[in-house]
Write a structure and sequence with these properties.
By secondary structure, the chain is of the alpha+beta class. It has one domain: Rieske [2Fe-2S] iron-sulphur domain (Rieske Iron-sulfur Protein). A 6-stranded antiparallel β-sheet has the order 1-10-9-4-3-2, with no helix packed on it. A 4-stranded antiparallel β-sheet has the order 5-6-7-8, with no helix packed on it. The relative contact order is 0.20.
Length: about 140
């Protein structure tokens, strides 16, 4: 019985060490963010999708307008902005290989849920702000 207890303890410690190495957390919910400045709309052409600094968030623009998503993977909570791939074609988590399309839909697991979207606003000069505390529908776009 002591061997089984020791084995379980080692499994738990190993799992925690792996999670801390990849920046993962046990929560797969998006990180709550303050407002994040995201550049000017003039520097965001249609077809763009890019990470915004080290924060777990990205900004994008398609034919419908500007939108933002979390870069917190829905599988294990890893920050995709730290070592992942963020491009117009693909968002890939560095921890376990989950892949998402440009609108945050799961293309390949182990993630089973899409990435959450955040509200975006622009001031009179076209400066964009991502409101990381306000989730919106995946179809919400800021017309610019």
């Amino acid at each position: 019985m002591a061997d089984a207890t020791r084995r379980r303890f080692l499994e738990m410690v190993g799992g925690a060490a792996t999670a801390s190495l990849c920046g993962c957390s046990s929560s797969a919910t998006p990180a709550l963010l303050a407002d994040v400045p995201a550049g000017n709309e003039s520097s965001l052409p249609v077809g763009t999708l890019e990470a915004v600094g080290p924060e777990p968030v990205c900004i994008a623009r398609d034919a419908g307008g500007v939108y933002a998503m979390t870069l917190t993977c829905t599988h294990e909570g890893c920050n995709i902005a730290e070592g992942g791939t963020v491009s117009e074609q693909l968002i890939q988590c560095p921890c376990h290989g989950s892949q998402f399309d440009a609108n945050g839909n799961v293309v390949r697991g182990p993630a089973a849920s899409p990435l959450a979207h955040y509200a975006v606003s622009a001031d009179a000069a076209g400066n964009l702000t991502i409101h990381g505390s306000t989730q919106v529908s995946a179809s919400t776009r800021l017309a610019v």
